[in-house]
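A further point concerns the way the authors explain their paired sequence and structure data. The central task, working out the structure tokens from the amino acid sequence alone, is never made concrete. I therefore recommend that a typical entry be quoted early in the introduction. An entry of this sort, consisting of the sequence and the corresponding backbone structure tokens, reads as follows:
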Amino acid sequence: MLADTPKAPQFAVEDFFASPARANASISPDGTRVAYLAPWRERLNVWVENLDTGEEARCVTADTRRSVHVYHWTSDPRWLLYEQDGDGDENWHIYRVDLENPEAGAIDLTPFPGARAVGFETTPSRPGKALLRLNHRSPVEFDLYELDIPTGELTILAQNPGQVAGLLYTPDGKLYTHTLTDDGDIALSTWDPVTGVRHPVATFDGSDYPLDIQPFQLTPDGTGAWIGSNRGSDRTRLVRLDLATGAETEVDSDPILDLDPRSTVFPTLPSPLVLDRRTGDLIGVRHLGERQVIHPLTPHFADVLENLTKLSDGDLSHLSSDHSGQRWVVSFTHDRDPGVTYFYDHATARSRLLFRPYPDRDPDTLAPMTPVTVPARDGLRLPAYLTLPLGTEPAGLPLILLVHGGPWHRDGWGFDPSAQFFANRGYAVLQVNYRGSSGYGKKFLKAGIGELAGKMHDDLIDAVDWAVDQGYADPDRVAIFGGSYGGYAALVGVTFTPDVFTAAVDFCGPSNLVTFLRTVPEFVRPHLINNWYLYAGDPANPEQEAELWARSPLSRVDDIRTPLMVVQGGNDARVVQAESDQIVAALRARGVDVEYMVKEDEGHGFVNAENNIDMYRAAERFLARHLGGRCSRTLSPSSAPGR
């Protein structure tokens, strides 16, 4: 970054964390309409407008309590479905709206208190139907149902026989169980629900898949599945698994890149599989390195892709087409022009801009995100991203180490509102993919086993040292900020390495690994064997319980002398509020001042704009006080929440 680059104007917090004007667009199957999310009564709701007539768009959902983030077109463009939970409790329900009857309210198609619907999918072979899994019979067991979308009728296809992680249902009615062995291996078997007999199809080393095999997509004919496999390889490639024999046949791979893993943790992000809207056939595959690479698998999609990539210098994000494959709505990932969305007609090769989510934001006033590589002390190379403030000499800056969650996730290139906000306040922002992050090969992933508060944390310290050695960062003004596992990392930072950080912000991070693992939702516990139990330990084992406690920030709370801010959602089902309460209480018992913010209407991560705005306003003041960054004094009049 050149020192003579014009300094960016100081934006209000709302400019980064208020709801977008529009976002997440997709085209209807008949190609006549586009749906998208936009504010209605200060919450994101689903809107629909005609692509050709120019008639006024209309809001078709009416959620005033919590923003909608996931919706689905159906094969009949009359019906639109969306998903919603209760104040962040992650008990997802499926709702239906009738686009031909605007006055009719949304219908809850899964009206079971305390239950959650997961694995929702529609299939081209069964128009008007959808598959989903429900745990309303037993909190720990998900049964397989078919939903008739027009009538709302739910038909049970298979009751979970117990200890089954997933049920696969083919178009010809065959059932497969997805189970974990006592050793954590993943077993796929045919299953006859009448006799209870199972026949093994394939077994996978569970330690290769801490968050299960992803993707796992049934082929349209039901004889196979497209899966992400790293069997006999360091890299994850796409193979076709034959459901009769268990044989794997490679479909697509990249010599240096893994399949894009991001949707495994955040299902709202694009899948690595690009499918034909009408047939369900595979037409493209996403891989991810510093930037995204898409491999087209059909001549038609190759032609479409060539023209789509000319619309922006960003990475293609969400893609949707009509059933003909001619009309497309696409958005882009970009570090400074996020979510820019276009309509493209392949028949005419014409395109037009539909919207920018933040239309008043000038991309030139935002900071570029630059891929860098950080050397770890043991020689491992750590992919990272550096965002530097505009118009400031990139030397001796206050630094924020922004740590991603998971830990089986990764940072990628694109717009990160936290990074941009802090860069706008004069901070250098470094995001490092420490060992144990996904998407960099099996060896890199497994290097994190047993290394919580060990080498995984050393990687973060090495990243800080790198930024100091490169001259970017002032070693006396370094903060660590993270959510979920990143929040745990922030707490580890101020307990295990208290001399490194000048301030820390923990957002919904576990403070005691023992109590954290004992309070995860009951249905999650059988699936911990290949992630938390493997990487950290099982609290049911006394020796491992002692090790978990030794790696817990709460065990070293007396070492905290770094100013700390803690943020928590009151309805967090993954990291319960007690995890934050106990470390705050321990500090206050010592007479140590700690800032603590709890939002009772949020879960694991904040959804509603006003809560994110409150959090980042408080973080802005907190970090400015301890690191000396800029702090806003007035609210931008053009940036009211929900604008």
Observations:
- Residues 172 and 430 are 51 Å apart (CA to CA).
- The first strand starts at residue 23 and ends at 27.
